[in-house]
Structures are given as C-alpha cells and as structure tokens.
Amino acid sequence: MDKLMLHAVAGSGKTTHILNDLSTEKRSAVITYTVANKESLKKKIVNKFSYPPENIRVFGLFEFLYGFCFRPLQINRTNNGICFDRPPYYLKGYFNDNSQIYSNQLSRFIMREELNYLNRIEKYFDHLYIDEVQDLHSDDFDWLMTLSNLKIPVTLVGDFYQSTFATSRRGNKSATLFSNYTAYKRKFENNGYHFDESTLNKSYRCSRNISEFVTSNLGIDMDSHNLKESEIEVIDEKEEIVSIMNNNNIKKLFYNKSSTYLGNCDNWGNSKGQQFNDVCVILNPATLKIFPDKLYDLAPTTLKKLYVACTRSKNNLYFINQELVPKTFIK
C-alpha cells in the first residue's frame, strides 16, 4: 500500500499525519495548493526538527508543476512563466501571446506532451506527499492519478467534503466527479490507490455531538476524539440573536455576502482551514427549509460549504435564520 489516499474528516489532523511521517532519513516532497497552507507547513516542519531540513521540500502545486515538472524538461522552449487568467474559449494550444502557459493547461500539457516528469520525481525524492488533495480538479486531478505510476511511495491526504476550492477548471472536465463521493473514491481505487477511510475519521477539533450532528443530519460520516459536550442550539429570540451578533468572540458564518454584515463574519466556504471557539451558522432560506433533518438533500456544493462551516467550532455551534438578523447589523 505504498500508494495511499487518506480520507480525513475535518479536524482529524491530516497535516499532522504528514508531519509525523517526515524524517531526515528520506528525501521528501510535500505539495499543497494554497500559499497559506504552504507557509504553515514550512513553519511546522521547522518546529518539528528545530531547523529546515535540506532533504524535505515544500511546494505550492503550481510551483511544483511549473518549476519542477515543466520548466526543466522544456529546454528548447522560452519559458515566460504562468498566466493565471482565464484562457479564451477559442484557445488552441496551451500558451498565451506572451508564451506564458495558462495555469489550467499546465497539467494537461505535461501529460499530453509526455514529459518524463515521473522519472524526474523518482530521481530527486524518496516519498511524495500531497496535502488537501480535494482541491485538485480537472486536469490537475488527472495528473494526480498518474502519480500512482511512480516507483516511490505516494501519500495523499484530503477531505472530499471540503472541496470548496479548485486548482483549475476546463469546461465541464471532471465536474460530476466532485458531486459524488462513491465515484470519487472509486476513481482513486481504479488508479491504484488504497483509499483509507478509517485512519483519519475522528476529529480532534469537533466535539462528539457536533460530529454526531454532521453524521446524522448532513449524511457525512465522522467520529470524534473529543468526548466533551457542546451546545448545539437554534437561536430565535431577538435578544439572544442581538447578543450573538454583537459578540465578536463568536464567528458568524453566512452562505454568502457576509461582507454586507457588521461584526466578526465570513462566508461558509471561506472559513475552510480555520477554527474558532464558538461558531454561529446563519441559515439562508434554501437551507432553512430542510433544516435540520434533511440537510443531506442540499446541492453538493452547498452541502460541502455547510459542512465546512459546522466543523469550524471547537466548542459550541449555534444556528440563526438569516431573516431574523436585525437590519441594524446590515451595512
């Protein structure tokens, strides 16, 4: 099982799992998508070893694709960098007029041009890790699948239900894959990965009853190492609502347009990667209609964002009908 996909629920310590596996005895590459997560990983590695080990490299996804897999193997081409703009719909090829490769064409180019990137990875590394793999979409996901052909161990870590961001999109490429957990799991298995659903199925962040709420009401299986009891409460009294909205120690999470409200607010999906002592989820009309018993019937994208919002809390979880938020809190 040297090709491993660890499905990790929110707060289960997926990054910690990678850190615990790193050592000074093997050359490791750790890849992640967001800049914030890359910098966080680098700091945690330094904290673990008390210095930055030369045998452990941390890459952003596009840094790895372009700087490690693409550029060194394109000796005869002028390399003018990556273009992150959306390519025109009539694009033929992979590059813009300035010879910059479009970011959403990079993985596709690497695979279709048959660059020998697998041998290059094997030459320089003994183990490849990729964190937050649920963020790899479209051609980047197809590139991820080719890594099972490496002769070195590959460890992937991520949470299907936190796929609220996407590294790239190209039309409807792989769009349905991220709407169905069973199909997503099968895709990994069919490409040679062992799909592990048990190792990281318990959250350290979320309490037992928040985990039970997610399992029962959102239809997303998760357990908890945290046996304490949290308050899970629907707030409908005006005075209590005003008190929560005024309390900046409670994070208020809206489906969207949180910037139009006063206080410590954000959107459901934007809160990914964060944690708070107490969270209040503001329910939009569509979600309110099926709250709490049939939340699993939400559209896949909405369900994932709600899951992210509910699992940010280390302590208590509150719910408020958006229409009950007093107008005095609207900018």
Characterize the structure shown.
This protein is of the alpha/beta class. The protein has helices at residues 14-21, 35-49, 61-70, 106-112, 117-124, 138-146, 181-190, 208-218, 238-246, 285-289, 300-310, and strands at 3-7, 28-32, 56-60, 82-83, 101-102, 127-131, 154-158, 194-196, 202-207, 223-226, 232-234, 250-254, 265-267, 276-283, 313-321. The strands form 4 sheets. The chain has a 6-stranded parallel sheet. The protein is globular, with a radius of gyration of 21 Å. The model has no long low-confidence stretch (mean pLDDT 92).
Summarize the structure.
This protein is of the alpha/beta class. The chain is built from 11 helices and 15 strands.
Annotation field: number of helices: 11
Report Rg.
21 Å
Number of DSSP strand runs: 15
Fraction in beta strands? 15-25%
Q: Say what oligomer this is.
A: single chain
Strand order of the largest sheet: 3-2-6-7-1-8
Q: Helix/strand-derived class?
A: alpha/beta
User: What do the pLDDT scores average to?
Assistant: 92
Sheet having the most strands: 6 strands, parallel
Low-confidence stretches: none
Helix content: 25-40%
Shape: globular
Q: Give the topology string: H per helix, E per strand.
A: EHEHEHEEHHEHEHEEHEEHEEEHHE
Q: What's the N-to-C terminus distance?
A: 54 Å
Task: Please name the defining characteristics of this protein.
six-stranded parallel sheet; globular; five-stranded parallel sheet; 15 strands; 331 residues; alpha/beta
